[in-house]
Amino acid sequence: MAASPPFKLDDYKKRMDGAVTALQHEFSGLRTGRASPSLLDPITVDAYGAVSPLTSVASVSVPEPRMISVNVWDKSVVAAVDKAIRSANLGLNPIMDGQTLRIPIPPLTGERRQELAKVAAKYAEQQRIAVRNIRRDAMEHLKKLEKEHAISEDEHKRHGAEVQKTTDDHIKKIDDTLHSKEQEIMQV
């Protein structure tokens, strides 16, 4: 049996940073009342027998503050793009105009703001879980190294404390990101 690789906290830190970055990317797709091309980033389209990101079948632009324009390159995919946008649960209703979909961004109602805040909280919880899973992986790695006598019990405890501190820092970053996004959503 091969020995486990040495413990590197940076590897786990990078994975946790990835979870925070993923959250920020998901939040960029949450609508706050202004049109933004990143609003449609999370949308995938069932086209050509495969699921692809919206940006691989169309170009997205913002001609005015409350309007998104989606120019679909292939006429046969327009209906699939329309369906994907409507079913993305963003509260958007595209207007078809040939190969172009115009999407008016309605002002957010209080109820819609509450729903978006819940979606934001759900995204944040998914990334908290991801960070905790990374912590679990790190702790299992440490346990395995101690069992193989590659590190001492004291080193295991010290590294374990470092992993926990890193985890706590990343959970706090996620909570802070969520808090600022909730404030942005609730701002009228």
Record the SSE blueprint.
Elements: H1 9-28, E1 44-47, E2 50-53, E3 58-64, E4 67-72, H2 78-86, E5 95-97, E6 100-104, H3 110-147, H4 153-186
Antiparallel strand pairs: 1-2, 3-4, 4-6, 5-6
How does this structure look, described?
The protein has two domains: 9-27 and 109-186, Orthogonal Bundle (Topoisomerase I, Chain A, domain 4); 34-104, Gyrase A, domain 2, CATH 3.30.1360. Helices cover 54% and strands 15% of the residues. It contains four helices and six strands; from the N terminus they run H-E-E-E-E-H-E-E-H-H. A four-stranded antiparallel sheet has the order 3-4-6-5, with helices on one face. The radius of gyration is 22 Å and the shape is elongated. The model has no long low-confidence stretch (mean pLDDT 88). Residues 23-186 form the Ribosome recycling factor domain.
Offer a concise description of the structure.
About 55% of the residues lie in helices and about 15% in strands.
